[in-house]
Amino acid sequence: MSGTRTNILVIATDQQRADAIGAYPGSQALTPHLDAIAAEGILFTQCVSNAPLCVPARASVATGLLPRQHGVWSNAAGANPAGPSHVRDVRDQGYTTAVIGKCHLYRDGPATAAGTHTRDGDANLAAWGFDERMEVNDPIGTRHAGCSYTDYLESRGWLAEHQAYIQEWVDQMRSGEVRPWDQRPSPVPEGEDIDSFIGSNVVRWLERHDGEQPFYLQAQFTGPHDPFDGPLAYRARYDAHELDPGIPEPPDNPVPGRIRALLRRNRTIGAATISERQRWRAAYLGNVSLIDDWIGEILAVLRRRDWLSNTWIVFISDHGEMLGDHALWGKTVFYRQSVTVPCILRPPGGITGRVSNALVELIDVPATLRDIAGAEPLDSAMGCSLCEHLTSDSTGKEAIVSDLFGQTMLRTRHHKLVFGTVDKRPHQLFDLEADPDERENRVFDTRLATELLDRWMEPFDALTDQTAFARYRDYVKQSGSLN
Model pTM? Predict the structure, then answer.
């Protein structure tokens, strides 16, 4: 490497909950390579997603801003590539920037227009600051929209079978009778699934990088987001009967209206047996282990090229997955399983690994990346560099917010309050010290709810882009949909 600046590798997954890493206390995930990264860095157990949904969460990572600042309250609208971008800031410090995998900085998935291709949005990614780009659609979007992965499948004669597989899952989701525990793996040959496609291309990129400039590379896997397409061999690594089935009981009364609607829409989740819940977790964790194997291949390239001593490694996910806990599946709610995400920071050469319970959030990641690259901090951003935790035992922030669909979660070290962003009407209140599993909704404690709002929300409210929020509220009124 010329100069003294270090490489930066960001590895991101989609819909991976915080406890789906073997190094996480009490976890049953088999992730030896992620565990190895954590053993030479810091594993943050209390990292909060600033929105438990793809586009707003990813917009926060890209911009360094809260959803209430960048204005993306759902997947209905994309982030503004002309706004703040940590990628541009890193590139302007002399880095070669690249992204491989799922970006999802704009609407994707079931709403992706049929016949479109990610190449149509290539200028968008260039505007964010990526010199090299290989974008892959959300798996659900691959059933009718093109990307580098569907091009690859078509060249091998597997596209029609793959698209039929995705359509099968979409039809089941729309039926309201989802049975994720019965989901079959991808029909393509082993090693040709979408995450293996991403992993193999990340490996190839690292092998061919000339090293003349330090690199900033985002490796963006699509798993373990459903459908759980990993080969059966990965599920077989887990004895399903030994897996913790989680928290089957539905939410404690009073149940917020939106969660009541989710429970009605997917009654199969609440009715799942213990065995079904365990099989579901084996399929989910199997996809986690598949990605972990590719992380092992990535680490092997860094080791062969003698770059582990000169590369920062950051591992994150955009949001979590309920996996049937509280009788819910997917994300978009503010329970721990949905809103707490994995976060690992490993400096060049590594350190003696440790686990931190500091309260941190996703917008701290772009602040960290700017810090590492030597870029100026972003004005008006509330993100703080995680590098400070390398030399201190900070307890992290005192309060964090997460925004989605016109709802806000206020998380402090001891409490979690979910409320209407506009009317401030409390929906859920949890005492995280007495009730870490969030089983008892104490929303009738209006005194505590008022104290939390009065103590913490004024600076967050002052940051809200009211014009963008009004635009989202108009969209909801006109479309009848939150998303």
Answer: 0.96
